[in-house]
TrEMBL record:
PANTHER family: GH20068P, HEPARAN SULFATE SULFOTRANSFERASE. This is Heparan sulfate glucosamine 3-O-sulfotransferase 1. Keywords: Disulfide bond, Glycoprotein, Membrane, Transferase, Transmembrane, Transmembrane helix. It comes from Geodia barretti (Barrett's horny sponge). 3'-phosphoadenylyl sulfate binds at K65, G66, G67, T68, R69, R148, S156, Y236, K256, G257, H258, Q259, H260. InterPro entries: NST/OST (IPR037359), P-loop_NTPase (IPR027417), Sulfotransferase_dom (IPR000863). The keyword Iron does not apply. One of its GO terms (molecular function) is [heparan sulfate]-glucosamine 3-sulfotransferase activity.
Length: 261
């Protein structure tokens, strides 16, 4: 204090006051800007330090073999959508659910405030307690269900699960599908759901993706031009823009997209 008094004695009091006032103003400006993310978010100056892992704003709950991988991969091309890696199985697998909300959020991609995190776990649709768990944790999460001609879907499931090349033995379609257990979740207590036509996603992906984009409330991105039919694959592929701005052709891997008998 004596030192300060001594200093004040040598420097004019008015100058000390101006320096202190400027310091307070600077501190206030810093506090306001760091506590209102919207000011950065609106100004297009988003920095990676503002990216966080959050509860997903949208979840694809199924159905298995409906085209869930195609849907989430196409969505992931949208600059405002980031998808979780793999299938998270938080709400349907008790061993994951017990790990808690924090674990679930840690499985999510980092997103900026103007972006959407999304995950897909097709067994959510057939697991009875999933709707209650999801609804009680986040009633506002948008839910997407992709459906497909049930016969095509069943053939698709059969080809994937009982492919003799994979399991080493032939199992007839009748044994594993027609006489096997059937599951469906009739407790879909979700309040916001968008149904994607999985057959239309195969024949006209742009049209279905524009509908999904509108439901999610993200910017207009999908166009007819970005999808192209790949004759070798027998399915549509699409142009994907990388973080660096390069454009790459993108098809699903060999485990998706079979010619059905
Ligand atoms: P098949 O592999 O039997 O043809 P899921 O990802 O839910 O398991 O669904 C897989 C199905 O998605 C595939 O079944 C395929 O028919 C369908 N699909 C839809 N769009 C596709 C695309 N662009 N490329 C590959 N498969 C696609």
């Amino acid at each position: 204090m004596n030192e300060l008094n001594g200093l004040c004695g040598r420097v004019p009091k008015k100058a000390v006051f101006i320096v202190m006032a400027a310091g307070i103003v600077l501190l206030l400006v810093y506090h306001i800007s760091s506590s209102t993310p919207g000011s950065f978010y609106d100004s297009d100056s988003m920095t990676s330090s503002q990216e966080e892992q959050r509860f997903p704003q949208a979840i694809i709950i199924g159905v298995k073999k409906g085209g869930t991988r195609a849907l989430i991969s196409m969505l992931d091309s949208h600059p405002q959508v980031e998808s979780a890696r793999g299938e998270v199985h938080f709400f349907d697998r008790n061993e994951n659910f017990r790990k808690g909300l924090r674990w679930y959020v840690q499985q999510m991609p980092f997103t900026a405030p103007n972006e959407i995190a999304i995950e897909k776990s097709p067994s959510y649709f057939i697991t009875p307690y999933v709707p209650d768990r999801l609804h009680s944790m986040s009633p506002s999460t948008k839910v997407i269900l992709i459906v497909r001609d049930p016969i095509e879907r069943t053939i698709s499931d059969y080809i994937q699960l009982f492919n003799p090349d994979r399991i080493g033995q032939q199992k007839s379609f009748n044994d594993v599908v027609l006489d096997g257990p059937n599951h469906i979740n009739d407790r879909a207590q979700v309040i916001r759901i968008h149904i994607v036509n999985g057959d239309a996603l195969i024949s006209n992906p742009a049209q279905e993706m524009i509908r999904v984009q509108n439901y999610l409330g993200v910017s207009d991105f999908f166009t007819e031009d970005m999808f192209y039919y790949n004759k070798t694959k027998g399915f549509y592929c699409w142009h994907k823009v990388t973080d660096k701005g390069d454009v790459h052709p993108n098809c699903l891997g060999s485990s998706k997209g079979h010619q059905h008998p």
